[in-house]
Amino acid sequence: RKKVTVQTLQNLYKNGEPITMLTAHDFPSGHVADVAGMEVVLVGDSLAMVALGMEDTSEVVMEEMLLHCRSVARAAKTSFTIADLPMGSYEVSPEQALQSAIRIIKEGRMQGVKLEGGEEMAPTIKRITQAGIPVVGHVGLTPQRQNALGGFRVQGKTTAGALKLLRDALAVQEAGAFMMVLEAVPAEIATLVTKKLRVPTIGIGAGNGCSGQVLVQIDMAGNFPPGRFLPKFVKKYADVWGETIKGIQQYRDEVKTRAYPSPEYTYPIAKAELAEFEK
Ligand code: KIV
Ligand code: NA
Suppose 165 and one of 141, 156, 236, 244 were both cysteines; which one would form an S-S bond, judging by CB atoms 3.0 to 4.6 Å apart? Predict the structure, then answer.
């Protein structure tokens, strides 16, 4: 397969073929997403929680994002790579945002950036795209603003909310974003918004009428302990945690009983050499 570009994604959109996007936060998670055929790999700021054990995404800083971006970039031979601008790195001014976006490209080795927000971010999106950096928008539920939104709530559930979502999506498109994430929006609203745009929408908790889908890798791969809260839209496609626990527990048992390492996992020595040594 050839490296995915903005043009590849635009062709998928034109042909009505859903775009596949998945998060990754390091070399192995980027590698597996790439090999499995994801068109876009996103170094989301969700890595604050899934890779760094932080409470929420507001804690992760640019330097930390850059380290993870570089690791994923080395793995993504085919997938188009984008990264979130972390909270605090783009809200102050379009200049600050452009400087941060340049760091994601130059130091993080990504191909594009994603940033949260609607109408109010239009000048910022414009500034970054005019510098030749592809921008992915993110409207609907914007987790970096959870304190202002009053938590993780579905957006666009009222007529007024849906109209605001449409205004935001149109403004993000007009500002030059080539694609946008729609998060936690009723399916019918996401479908209607998608139809009114001429750039692809990538849904997460937004139904199947979007131009593509994105999920957080550790969620869809089931790489988390039993009992953890999962949003309604997450489908668990595998049980990586369960498989890993099984393997580690068996390893522990076999070390304790000296079943591991058995001869097949051990380096041999010629009998004569050994006899000489034992003298
Ligand atoms: O940070 C993230 O992983 C995201 C996706 C869930 C869209 O923004
Ligand atoms: Na994010």
Answer: 156
Inter-residue contact 59 to 252 (CB < 8 Å): no
What CATH number did the domain enclosing 111 receive? 3.20.20.60
Domain that includes residue 30, residue range: 6-238
Is position 55 annotated as part of the catalytic site? Answer: no
Q: Are residues 138 and 65 part of one domain?
A: yes
Q: Is the complex ipTM higher than 0.90?
A: yes
Q: Is residue 245 part of a domain?
A: no
Determine if the pTM surpasses 0.90.
yes
Considering the domain boundaries, does residue 99 fall inside one?
Answer: yes
Task: Give the number of the atom of ligand 1 that is nearest the alpha carbon of residue 181.
Answer: 7
Query: Whose Cα sits closest to atom 4 in ligand 1?
Result: 44
User: What is the distance in A from the centroid of ligand 2 to the CA of 45?
Assistant: 5
Rounded Cα distance, 44 and 41, in Å: 9
Q: In the prediction, which pLDDT does 99 show?
A: 98
